[in-house]
């Protein structure tokens, strides 16, 4: 007898496994720019982003992924940043987003070197 398909399927779980992630990345960025810890992920930076209108740049998501230690997908988003500073003007917490992006770029370069 064959199994009936009721329209349900098993999805990959969305749990964050901090043991597999590279959490030191966030602490290195935080050492360069301590204001990253003030971020509350409100999304104002993404709403005011000029690059975000034309690319997949999403600074809120970049900071969240860096805080989680999920650094594999950060390169494309961070490289799209124009460093215009609009996100810094829109940030209600005063996060120095330019320095955050620069620090993330530097850490990604260090991580890629053998």
Model description:
By secondary structure, the protein is mainly α. The protein contains 6 helices and no strands. It has helices spanning 24-32, 44-47, 59-68, 74-79, 86-90, 97-112. The longest helix has 16 residues, at 97-112. It is globular, with a radius of gyration of 17 Å. The N and C termini lie far apart (55 Å). The model has no long low-confidence stretch (mean pLDDT 88).
Short description:
This protein has helices at residues 24-32, 44-47, 59-68, 74-79, 86-90, 97-112. By secondary structure, the chain is mainly α. Helix 1 packs across helix 6.
Separation, N- and C-terminal Cα atoms = 55 Å
Average pLDDT metric:
88
Overall strand count = 0
Calculate Rg over CA atoms.
17 Å
The proportion of residues in beta strands is under 5%
| Topology pattern, helix = H, strand = E | HHHHHH
Count of helices?
Answer: 6
Topology (elements, then pairings):
Elements: H1 24-32, H2 44-47, H3 59-68, H4 74-79, H5 86-90, H6 97-112
Helix pairs in contact: 1-6
What attributes characterize this protein structure?
about 110 residues; mainly alpha; about 45% helix; globular
């Amino acid at each position: 007898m064959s199994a009936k398909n009721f329209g349900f399927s098993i999805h990959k779980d969305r749990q964050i496994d901090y043991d597999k992630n590279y959490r030191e990345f966030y602490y290195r960025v935080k050492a360069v720019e301590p204001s990253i810890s003030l971020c509350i992920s409100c999304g104002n930076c993404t709403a005011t982003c000029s690059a975000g209108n034309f690319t997949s740049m999403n600074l809120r998501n970049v900071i969240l992924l860096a805080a989680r230690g999920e650094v594999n997908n950060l390169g494309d988003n961070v490289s799209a940043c124009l460093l215009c500073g609009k996100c810094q003007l829109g940030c209600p917490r005063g996060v120095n987003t330019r320095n955050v992006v620069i620090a993330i770029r530097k850490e990604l370069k260090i991580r890629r070197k053998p």
